Amino acid sequence: xxxxxxxxxxxxxITQSACKKFETFQTDPNKSTVATPDLLLTTVAQQAFRTTDxxxxxxxxxxxxxDNVNNQQYYGWMRGSFATYDNLRQVLKMEQSALAQNxxxxxxxxxxxxxxxxxxxxxxxxxIPYSEALKGEEQIAAPKYDPQQDIYLSILNDLKAANASITxxxxxxxxxxxxxxxxxxxxxxxxxxxxxxxxxxxxRVNEPALELQKRFAEIVNNPAEYxxxxxxxxxxxxxxxxxxxxxxxxxNSNDMQTAQYMEETFVELLKSLKDVRLFSFADKAPKFSSLxxxxxxxxxxxxxxxxxxxxxxxxxxxxxxxxNPRFYxxxxxxxxxxxxxxxxxxxxxxxxxxxxxSGNAATYYAAGVRASMQFYGxxxxxxxxxxxxxxxxxxxxxxLQQILTxxxxxxxxxxxxxxxxxxxxxxxxxxxxxxxxxxxNKVIPKRWMYPESELRLxxxxxxxxxxxxxxxxxxxxxxxxxxxx
Length: 485
Hints:
Layout: H1 2-15, H2 37-48, H3 54-59, E1 63-65, H4 84-100, H5 107-125, E2 128-129, E3 145-146, H6 148-164, H7 183-200, H8 212-220, E4 236-238, H9 254-258, E5 260-262, H10 264-272, H11 277-281, H12 308-316, H13 326-329, E6 336-339, H14 341-353, H15 361-375, H16 380-387, H17 399-409, H18 418-426, H19 452-457, H20 459-469
Antiparallel strand pairs: 1-5, 2-3, 4-6
Helix pairs in contact: 2-4, 2-5, 4-5, 5-6, 5-7, 6-7, 7-8, 7-14, 14-15, 14-17, 15-16, 15-17
């Protein structure tokens, strides 16, 4: 009987054009089996532009955590992570897919995201694997570490090349959740990022190879070739939706409802300027709940540098404001800004102030303040009144301080680690370290130590990089190249 059945099966196969393998029936004919650049682009954008991070707010003296000792708040962090290289691998896959399918319109966007991620990494650590990174398929498992100055120059050149490759005839891309495929807006984003990169190098302005002032002026003075953001509508940001995995990252956050409070120095800064953005950022302190929400006296904070028990006592007394409930009750709330129009205007104002470009710093400055307040939903009448205050109007004697202070305020709950990096670059504003809760000898760290995995898997190259940059060893207080005078 068994032989008869096998013979019948063989006959069936012969009558067909071919016997299909079992795996054939496991493939869904309605789903693509090839990674297309549009699908990869969606994933890349979702990861890259999730810039809303309370840990940054703790380190940047905008919020404070009161349940226990937070290492970001008390400056006690140690090693960082190279997880960003996983995100870069997705960018590489998108680039490879675009080349394989002859969809070259995706390539300038890939260059943008490469620049975006490598910039984050080098700002965190200093020298990092760059030229030999992401080359596991080429059997490079232990890539060398490139000097930070070489990485910055490559980033700037890549962004310039990305801009040049987008023309008026470049087709729209699919899968773009940031700009809906509009390549001219991507061109603006690329050049706006270039200006951020250039300004981050302000301490290296005399470095001949970088040509900072020349590059900065080239972009600003030639908008036809190098367009930049023209309004909030152009800024790089990630919008949220009331759908699973697409909601605001702190929606329903228990910590945000119970253990995170406004930082006192930040609240006092806003109160001193009569800045109505405070009402958008914070909830009234319980002790002053009977006051109107528009009364600055209704708001308070705790010191990020103070011990946990001291801050707990103040919260129990009702003296401190929590963050505005919209941040944890609204599933959509506000977009995560990656690089905003307001920041760009402050970069331009600083560029004028530093003599890199001509123009009116006060005009750029006012445009930045207005853009930030509009983003937070402030009415035009209130914006105009705010800008007319003597304490807010730009003055010749204190211009850089005012520009950077407003840039700092505009970064609340957006822009990733940018407010911390900006303070590290300029010292503005002064982050309070006076409290008894401080770690790291009351010193604000300048970087993160290299990951433990590098010491195990890439010891030779990481050791060389440490010796080259930090004679005192791999520690969080080392001064990387961009911060040296």
